[in-house]
What does this fold into?
Amino acid sequence: MAFGDGMEGRRGLVSSQGEEMENQPTPLNRLKIAIDGPAGAGKSTLARLLGERLGIPYIDTGAIYRALALKAHRMGISEDDEENLSKLARELKIEFKRDERGMRVYLDGEDVSEAIRTPEITRLSSPVSKHPKVREALLELQRKLVKEGGVMEGRDIGTVILPDADVKIFLTASVKVRAWRRYLELKEKGHEVDLEDLEKEIEERDRRDSTRSVAPLRMAGDAVLLNTDNLSIEEMVKEALRIIREKCGIG
Ligand code: DC
It folds into this structure.
């Protein structure tokens, strides 16, 4: 593939006098790419494919909140118990490991990749993630995961976690399209779901995720908006690579 073969991104530097200094190259494998947007817009798919094509790690931060929700659920900690949830968050041992099935999520050494995707844990992950102390407790963990570069996706990556990301993409799609994608995904995994219920659930999660007081879902001022309603997966990746190239001054 031409993109990524020995090419380097460029980051413009400005001197203390405000003059443009010579551009400093950022090696592609150290790029930090932030992808934010609502559930079902295609963030995980895009982050995975960009990570693979650029040869850099990709991190799904929703999986971290889901793992926390799973652990709290198993321990009988309420979704409203901010103190105990944040304590749990500070001690959370999360690892992302790639195998032939794709990226797997480990919680305290246990593979929880499927357990964190059930409808119950999906619902619980939203109220769990709204607590300021929980988010604060997970901030450094998230930054460390892409210290050397990577594609990170979530809700507040461009605004809070990586405000200095080299590229920020805000991915959206209509509720109908997102509900349909979730429906197909859950059906494939053997879950029985109703499309209308999914639409309502997505609307409710959108509302909660974007109206909470801490780190609400919102687009960073310097992010590029990408609507995926009418894009195939390949078109979405192509468009994202174009944005990355343009932002980093490549090609
Ligand atoms: O992306 P997802 O559906 O796996 O996310 C699960 C929940 O976690 C979702 O309700 C929003 C929350 N979340 C968050 O608050 N901040 C993030 N960076 C990622 C996810």
